[in-house]
Amino acid sequence: MSNSQTGRPLTVAVTSGKGGVGKSQLIASLAVALKQEGHRTLLVDADIGCGNLDVLFNFRPERDLRAVLSGECSARDVLCTVPVGDVELDVLPAPAANRHGSELAPAELITMVDAVREVGRDYAVILVDTGAGVSRNPMMFGAAADRIMVVANPEPTSLRDAYTAVKVLHDAHGINRFELVVNMSQNPKDGKRVYRQLVSVVEQFLPVEVGLLGVLPADDRVMRAVRARQPTTVAYPQSAYSHSVRVLMRRLLEHNADSQASGQVRYFEPGAHAAGTGAP
Ligand SMILES: Nc1ncnc2c1ncn2[C@@H]1O[C@H](COP(=O)(O)OP(=O)(O)O)[C@@H](O)[C@H]1O
Ligand SMILES: [Mg+2]
User: Fold this and answer.
1) Which pTM was predicted?
2) What is the position in ligand 1's atom list of the atom closest to the CA of 241?
3) Is the distance from the beta carbon of residue 240 to the nearest atom of ligand 1 less than 6 Å?
4) Ligand nearest to the CA of 28
5) What is the three-state SS of the chain?
6) Is any atom of ligand 1 closer than 6 Å to the C-beta of 24?
7) Is 148 in contact with 175 (CB distance < 8 Å)?
8) What are the tens digits of pLDDT across the range 150-183?
9) What is the best residue among 52, 222, 239 to mutate for testing ligand 1's pocket, by most ligand atoms within 8 Å of CB?
């Protein structure tokens, strides 16, 4: 599967306003489900300084994207192929923090986006863990993707921060389509309620469209899977959480043709370059 309109990979950025809402677990579990269905999938840990896909997949990268930023090697040199359950996953591990903390300089961001684009040519789906917040890093990766998943949980603080992430991505990059994932839903109505709340605020203030891509239940087995250092779709494939991840995956793939994020920036397009595109 690839981006059906263009033949290039489908790049999905997974972001959130608030941290700890379940982005990394969703990406890890979704990647397994995609591979099990035969989709060539690349995971990019762009949660600079706080990346933890290596922890979730229980591997120890020799090098990470920091080595690419410092010019020591190419992105292909840091690509890790990790056996996870019955599949192998290709992961670009997150740059470690350095004395500048987690914030990248604009030139470094361009290097990182270019590196992902280069390696990503060989894949059908690229999942990018942008990390949380509205700093330059997650915003850049959100803006560079075809689809943007905003993960929130049912707490009002999470919803407020999801709104802020949508607003900043719209204001800075002209993105006008987002896909909400409600995680840690307590009951079937929770997801729709949270979605309606977000839409009612967005409709008042922003010319953007928000779809509801999926609702993932609160499930104790997610925590147990993390402790076992396995994605939930590997440790507990029959759990309610894993089932919902597979439903979300199907919706993501089905709606591929008509659900582009419609921003002004397409850094991952072949031949495109992030320089000079109004990146922050
Ligand atoms: N659906 C869920 N049900 C129960 N616990 C969850 C669920 N999703 C995530 N968690 C818990 O939340 C923690 C944080 O999730 P994580 O994916 O690391 O968040 P983020 O990447 O957004 O910071 C996980 O370690 C797990 O214990
Ligand atoms: Mg995370």
Assistant:
1) 0.90
2) 1
3) no
4) 1
5) CCCCCCCCCEEEEEEECCCCCCHHHHHHHHHHHHHHCCCCEEEEECCCCCCCHHHHCCCCCCCCHHHHHCCCCCHHHHCEEEEECCEEEEEECCCCCECCECCCCHHHHHHHHHHHHHHHCCCCEEEEEEEECCCHHHHHHHHHCCEEEEEECCCHHHHHHHHHHHHHHHHHHCCCEEEEEEEEECCHHHHHHHHHHHHHHHHHHCCCEEEEEEEEECCHHHHHHHHCCCCHHHHCCCCHHHHHHHHHHHHHHHCCCCCCCCCCCCCCCCCCCCCCCCCC
6) yes
7) yes
8) 999 999 999 999 999 999 999 988 999 999 999 9
9) 222
- Per-residue burial over 55-66, b if 16 or more Cβ lie within 10 Å, else e, is ebbebebeebbb
Going along the chain from its start, the domains and CATH numbers come out as 10-254 (3.40.50.300)
Ligand 1 center from residue 20 Cα (angstroms): 6
Q: Which residues pair with 147 in a beta bridge?
A: 12
Indicate if ligand 1 lies below 6 Å from the C-beta of 184: yes
- Per residue in 240-268, pLDDT (tens digit) is 999 999 999 999 998 765 555 655 444 44
**Is the confidence at residue 139, as pLDDT, over 90?**
no
Distance CA 223, CA 196 (A): 28
Distance in Å, CA 129 to ligand 2 centroid: 7
Q: Which residue's CA is the closest to the ligand 1 atom numbered 26?
A: 223
Position 278 confidence tier, pLDDT thresholds 50, 70, 90? very low
| Residue 158 CA to ligand 2 centre (angstroms) | 15
Tell me the two tokens of residue 149: 């998943």
